[in-house]
Amino acid sequence: MQDIFEEPVSALFSYNAKTQAIMPRKMVWKGREYTFTKLGYHHTVRIGRILNHIFHVTDGTNDYRLRVNTETLEVVLEDVYHDRLTA
Amino acid sequence: MIASQHNQARPSIMHIDLNSCFATVMQQAYIHLRGKPLVVSAYSTPKGFVLSPSIEAKKLGIKLGFSNADARAVCPDVIVRTPDPELVRDVHRKFRKLFHPYSPIVEPKYIDEAVIDFKHTKYENADLTIVGEEIRLRMRREIGEWISCSIGISTNRFLAKLAAGIHKPNGLDVIDAQNVREVFSQMVLTDFPGIAKRYELRLQENGIYTPLNFLAADEKFLQKKVFRSINGNHWYMRMRGWEVDDIEFERKSYGQQYALAQKTGNVILLGRLLMKLCEKMGRRVRRAGYAARGISLALSFTNRTYLHTGHLVGYQMYTVWDFYNEAYRILHEAVTDGKIVSQMSVSCFDLVTVRAIEEQLFDQSRTKKHQVSDAVDRMNDRYGEYVVTPASMMQMDSTILDRIAFGNVREVYEGH
User: Which band of pLDDT confidence, cut at 50, 70 and 90, is reported for residue B149?
Assistant: First the structure.
């Protein structure tokens, strides 16, 4: 099941200079810390002239989509996918 | 060349087809969807139709075009998701970028297919099956480990596409002069790209029941009797591995379509939807540097009747109001008492480049409207789509969703 949130979150990222790969590692959402174990996909979208990075990550239980606004550097949790309930 | 013989050249055309593209890309991004029966559907409602079943869903018998309800009847646990067009466009751009070092001629055919022409490249005499495996590996490594593709190799685009469909998913097949008969013997006519039911019927009426019959048919017979056009000669050449499909057609029209969730015969409500369709279409037309001289509107009604009408308007439509006013006139005449609209599509044709318009602009009032339209486009470019919209579109933000048109990849590149 997919839940849409659009909520700003605190997040920690890592960057590998060798592979030029960036990945969200942790997020604090509603007072709880989530540790991401795998990056599913990373891409960019433009909303107007502002470039946004979209990260699809998982903590092993749920999948999360995070959006990073490159102008404000705000990190937003866009949606969470979990299969506890069927769609 | 001797066209009556099969092309004996070394195969140099590779067709690459992403398997279950929309669903596979969704599984790449959302790790928990991997390995599960998933369908990506136009809408998540029971009547929404399946655009892309995952490989797992296909194995259960779920096919493209099923309704979500049908898919659930086959597999109650099937997961239904709506498309993420930005995600798919990004994968498409990455896969095209990945192919370019191999050849300057990379032609995206659809959002999930591309053709690489290796002629006159350093790979011309290489074993393309090894190159194909390398490309497949790089796609997994550089785009995503869940991304899979089928690869076909031959001397022309038609046979390469046919080869890519032999073993799905993850196939890699070559069709050349040596095995073409064997490959054709295991197929039916509708396995050929471009031969659907109507053409199949026409071929059968002329005694052609199998691909091998088709291959054996005389060129003149195909031209004069079966197809009654140059298409007959093209099919004759195509099946023998000679290239006749390396032509890129110019865009001739732009269109937008919407299936109404709440069917209505209210012209005011339909007018608002039409405004949004015209706004989306107009943005695409202007972004690509065109205006249009023709407009058409197609309506499907709940009583299973259909109306499609269009005409040239006598001037170059450029602003959203130009498109809307002309389309609304057709709508107003078409929707009479008691008629309920279930689907609406608007399109514009007879495209002209903006430069041609500028050369003809002597009407000052039109110049001002064009300038206002361009200014609104610039604001939307800067701050995001629909930041500035006509008043009639208020509170319609998500009514008409972003979609990827079937068979069309030009927009991935136009204005991006």
Answer: very high
Interchain CB contact of A24 with B (< 8 Å): no
CATH number (3.40.50.1820, 3.30.870.10, 3.30.70.270, 3.40.710.10) of B1-178 reads 3.30.70.270
Residue B31 and residue A63: Cβ atoms within 8 Å? Answer: yes
Tell me the pairing of strands B149-154 and B172-174. parallel
- Tally the domains of chain A: 1
- Containing B185, the helix (H) or strand (E) segment is helix B180-185
Tell me which chain A residue has its CA closest to the CA of residue B90: A43
Prediction ipTM score: 0.90
Question: What's the pLDDT tens digit per position in B333-384?
Answer: 888 777 889 889 999 998 988 765 555 555 666 677 778 888 888 888 877 7
| Chain A, chain B: beta-carbon pairs less than 8 Å apart | 57
- The answer to which of A69-78, B54-63, B258-267 has the lowest mean pLDDT is B258-267
Q: Does A44 reach chain B within 8 Å, measured CB to CB?
A: yes
Residue listed under structure tokens 């009547």: B47
Query: Tokens representing B285?
Result: 């037309």
A38/B31 CB distance under 8 A: yes
Domain boundaries, chain B: 1-178, 187-248, 253-413
Query: Residue B219: what pLDDT?
Result: 93
Q: Does B80 touch chain A (CB under 8 A)?
A: yes
DSSP H helical segments within B53-155, as ranges?
A: 55-59, 68-74, 85-99, 128-142
In a domain, A87, yes or no: no
Pick from A38, A49, A83: which is nearest to B382 by CB?
A49
Question: What is the largest distance, in Å, between two alpha-carbon atoms of chain B?
Answer: 68
Give which of A6, A41, A52 to mutate to test B binding, by max B Cβ within 10 Å: A41
Q: Tens of pLDDT along B202-241?
A: 999 999 999 999 999 999 999 999 999 999 999 999 999 9
d(CA B382, CA B85): 20
Residue A18: inside a domain = yes
Q: Name the minimum distance, in Å, from the CA of B382 to any CA of chain A.
A: 4
What's the rounded Cα separation, in Å, for the pair A64 and A79?
A: 6
Cross-chain residue pair B86–A38, CB shorter than 8 Å: no
Domain that holds residue A66: 2-81
Nearest C-alpha in B relative to A66: B29
Looking at residue B109, its pLDDT comes to: 81
In Å, how far is B216's CA from the nearest CA of chain A?
Answer: 49
B187-248 maps to CATH 1.10.150:
yes
Domain at B253-413, CATH from 3.30.1490.100, 3.40.630.90, 1.10.3720.10, 3.40.1180.10: 3.30.1490.100
> Chain B within 8 Å of A19 (Cβ-Cβ)?
no
Ramachandran assignment for A60, one of left (phi > 0), alpha (psi -120 to 50 degrees), beta (any other): left
